[in-house]
Design brief:
It contains 10 helices and 6 strands. The chain has about 240 residues and is α/β, with parallel strands linked by helices.
Length: about 240
């Protein structure tokens, strides 16, 4: 009888690839902010961690969307108030185009409505710039664990506001304009002409005028100046 050689006591190595975000490599981060000094400071924070690496930067929301599509990134960290396209607009676009991409909002706005808008746009975390050195790294790690992150100082206020609204029978803040109307509003407030807006958004001038008329009616405003003031209050542009 032919003897059967004993099986090796060395356990077989699994051939199943590591499917964790990044496959065990450092999390690849896209950083978008229109202020170079802010990007530089945030990059120093993130690149100082062994599990995080900033591999792409953008100076506005539209560039962030383009860089995310062209670069292998796991996480996008977006400012809210940026030219051409805000961080919230970019988050909505990225959520549609790259559903596996994690998104964090990094902002100066300690504002409940922005927080809810960020969540609706697809962000999984909201971090204040004033405490970025304390919270941003943990927010990035939470995002890669598919866990939400909200800056600690807002938790009590958000829960209190929510409960008060529920007791009064009020709904949560409702977004009154569409994504396209918001894009038009931002560009109008930045001073672009109807023709320029049409070219930037690949729509007709007539459609731009229609969106602008709808904005004036929905928001109860009268002219471009009032639209610009509203855009500043809404964080679409900086004063």
């Amino acid at each position: 009888m032919t003897s059967v050689p004993p099986m090796s006591s060395v356990p077989a190595t699994s051939s199943v690839p590591d499917r964790r975000p990044g496959g065990g490599r450092p999390t690849r981060v896209l950083l978008a902010d229109d202020h170079t000094l802010v990007r530089r400071g945030v990059r120093l924070i993130l690149d100082g961690e062994p599990d995080l690496s900033v591999v792409a930067e953008a100076g506005d929301g539209a560039e962030a969307v383009a860089r995310a599509r062209d670069t292998d990134v796991d996480l996008a960290v977006l400012d809210i108030a940026m030219p051409r396209m805000t961080g919230l607009q970019a988050a909505r676009e990225l959520s549609r185009r790259l559903p596996d991409l994690r998104i964090l909002i990094l902002t100066m706005y300690d504002n409940e409505q922005y927080f809810f808008e960020a969540l609706k746009a697809g962000a999984c975390g909201y971090v204040l710039k004033s405490v970025a050195d304390r919270d941003l790294v943990e927010a990035c790690r939470a995002a890669m664990r598919d866990e939400p992150f909200i800056y600690p100082g807002a938790e009590t206020a958000l829960v209190r506001t929510y409960l008060e609204r529920m007791r009064r029978g009020e709904a949560l803040p409702v977004r009154t304009v569409t994504d396209r109307e918001e894009e038009v509003l931002k560009l109008v407030a930045e001073g672009h002409t109807t023709k320029e807006i049409a070219e930037l958004l690949y729509i007709s001038a007539k459609t731009v005028e229609s969106h602008r008329a709808n904005l004036l009616q929905k928001l109860g405003l009268r002219d471009r100046l009032e639209l610009t003031r509203y855009a500043i209050r809404a964080g679409l542009i900086e004063p």
